Amino acid sequence: MQTDLLTEARRQAEICNACRYCEGYCSVFPSMHAGRAFSDGDLTQLANLCHNCRGCYYACQYTAPHEFDLNLPKALSEVRRDSWESFAWPQPLARKFHSHGGAIALALVLGLALLFLAIRAIGSAGGAGFYAVLSHNAMVAIFLPAFVLPLVSLAISLRRYWRSVGGTHLRLANITHAVGMAAKMKDLAAGHGDGCNFEDEDRFSHARRFAHQAIMYGFLLCFAATSAGTVMHYLFNMPAPYPFWSLPKLLGTSGGLLLTLGCGWMMVLKLRADRHIGDIGAWSGDLGFIALLGFSGLSGLALYAFGDTQAMPTMLALHLGAVLTFFLLTPFTKMAHGFFRLAALIRDAQRSIDGNP
Amino acid sequence: MTKSYDIVVIGGGNAALCAAMTAAEAGAKVLILETAPKEYRGGNSRHTRNFRCMHTGPLGPLVDDYSEDEYFADLMKVTGGKTDEHLARLAIRTSEDCLPWMQAHGVRFQPSLSGTLSLARTNAFFMGGGKSLVNAYYRTAQGLGVDVLYEAAVTHLELEADRITRVEYTHAGQNHSMSPKSVIVASGGFQADTDWLTRAWGPAAQNFLIRGTPYNRGVVLADLLEQGVQSVGDADQCHAVAIDGRAPKFDGGIVTRLDCVPFSIVVNKNAERFYDEGEDVWPKRYAIWGRLVAAQPDQVGYVIIDAKSLDLFMPSVFPPLKADTLEELAAQLDLPASALCDTVDQFNAACGDTTNFHPTELDNVATTGITPAKTNWARPISEPPFYGYSLRTGVTFTYLGLKVDENAQCSTQNGPIANLWAAGETMAGSILGQGYLAGFGMTIGTVFGRIAGREAAAYAN
Ligand SMILES: Cc1cc2nc3c(=O)[nH]c(=O)nc-3n(C[C@H](O)[C@H](O)[C@H](O)COP(=O)(O)OP(=O)(O)OC[C@H]3O[C@@H](n4cnc5c(N)ncnc54)[C@H](O)[C@@H]3O)c2cc1C
Ligand code: SF4
Ligand code: SF4
Questions:
Q1: Which helix (DSSP H) or strand (DSSP E) does residue B183 occupy?
Q2: What does the pLDDT look like over B334-345, one tens digit per residue?
Q3: Which of A83, A111, A130 is the last residue of a domain?
Q4: Number of domains comprising chain A
Q5: Least CB–CB distance from A59: residue in B128, B248, B251
Q6: CA angle centred on B320, ends B315 and B325, rounded to 5°
Q7: Looking at chain A, which residue has its C-alpha nearest residue B49?
């Protein structure tokens, strides 16, 4: 990892550790105040506990022009991205996509092209509905590796992370605690429950938390829709297309709506927020990623809306291309943060519940 | 500024904001003139962390009870009786009502910070500290229609008979004046004016560090005193504590505190000890050490500890100097090495049985046969590496201020000034003549800020 980023985060953490005024805001501070000196692993863990709510920036009496020049959200977000990039496998991909929205756009174009090509070259094998455009087997052949490979990559990254932050044996209680925190996005409410200082300087608002909830639950619903379809296909021998009043459609439509709106909202918030209180280098990559995710949702909805028209094959290619790109990029884009954050929360539960520093 | 205002509030800290919000809620059109730029708004209030609050039963973050009498007794202890009982009790009694008022105006509280459990009953901590309190108040005030002008330095209030007829200030390089119906002064003490401090204290004051804002230079205070407005307190009284000698001249704030003195020996620049380092727990002694250090040559002290004490106190903002031998440490601190070794040797020889050592309680682990004695936590300085800090006097605020009555109203010899009120540090001397009780500054500012706002609005309406 980059020593200059770690050195700067350490300098700031040492000031915070003598101050402690922000202790109540989030999980970062109790964890920080548990020690006196900060190893690279400690800082990596702190960085992944921070979710850039900026409460501690606007509350800080030492921000520039003060000579202490505190900007903890920025320092931690830079270490955070560096940790994702350093632990990623293969690393060069992460170094590209985290910081370059353009690279993500390019990947999307490639993903779309691949799908159009597949439709052209393989086409239907006599299936109905979408499978009339691209055979079920072809879809599986494309998406199974696109799903499994990123998971393998993430597993490698997370293992590297776990080692670096000194994680110990996993216990169920650690995991349930962490999942509970994440499900409610407890930290995003800030210690007092008024939300983040994100889009309008020091005004507390839940906008970011709600937008993020919409994205996360929208994504999970879409994922559940696909899983439901898979189960129905293989276990019950009920291949697509499904009617509106079916599990895959209901989950998929509500999820798609949530995901699209959530991503749109998040982009608006991100455009309004002060870029200097985060990782400027990740700004375009993050925005590109949210756009990609939102486009996956939107194209899914469009596919449903125009499923019975001439435009269906085009819509299908757009949607599948976007989803394919999204999956493949998961370990190398902001999407990775969900996995790292969960790992960080589990690690923090080991510290706070098990007393394992 | 072409608009006309009912009330001008001078200052942009806690007291000013409490006054402005209260007056605006009463229907007055209020302007805040804050000399600091927006990034540095909020004076010393931006450095605070809690306020002391009376309560019957648990209240907000506060546990158990804290009665008026206990609160008052605590105050009397630290001021040695130099307290205006009537105003002090008014502040104490009203503090209970302040906590919910503060919440309603955007302040959020948090449980007592780690390392300050002893205050969980008496002091309510602001989540994020004083700057987040100030931010919340600015938002609320602006929502109430209060206008704020930053970088607006008030230079003169024109007193004619029993009224302030004009407020003069500079803004963006130009002189301005306006004539509001009421004026509230909440511009703090004068500690940032080193010349004034030096006149009052003597040349030693030039080496003092100022813990808070560089903007509290007492300009308005001096202007009013010159015009015969009644004052209270002495110019040579200030609250000062011993802080890390490497702290910046201004605005170092809370992080520059050093809690290691009880586990150390402290020497002056001649490497001589000069006071009992273990007289009491540090929160009860850090103010005394501010004065002790001020009385030493060059107004500096040096704290020496050894490896076994390093983890016994809150981490410091700057790491200590570190050396494997006392000679090396002396060189780093610029102290005479042989003198330091002698002092440490004598001290170590005077230490006795240390088995009862207890870092958080008075443990009576004392020296015998040296002067000054160390009466608690006396363990030999013997385990390398050795660590050193320099110690300087850090001024928190000054006591000289405007004398006010229970309506926060100012007066001259001839009686009350009809349209002038004062709140916060600038009138705190009306309540405490000396000494200080942690968290009482914000209590005074909140209570009297609200009173001043109420009275000024009633007069203006
Ligand atoms: C490091 C530190 C920590 C502290 N911690 C605590 C604590 O935890 N609890 C507590 O109760 N007290 C604490 N205090 C004391 C506390 O800060 C003060 O008692 C309190 O903030 C006083 O509030 P105020 O509004 O009167 O003054 P300030 O907050 O100092 O506000 C004065 C304002 O006046 C402005 N001003 C000055 N001159 C002019 C002018 N000529 N024209 C226009 N504006 C002017 C200044 O810019 C400033 O905004 C602390 C002090 C320091 C230094
Ligand atoms: S961010 Fe600033 S106010 Fe908050 S704990 Fe750190 S130094 Fe203190
Ligand atoms: S930005 Fe928010 S989450 Fe990150 S350290 Fe500051 S308060 Fe905690």
A1: strand B182-185
A2: 999 999 999 999
A3: A83
A4: 2
A5: B128
A6: 135
A7: A21
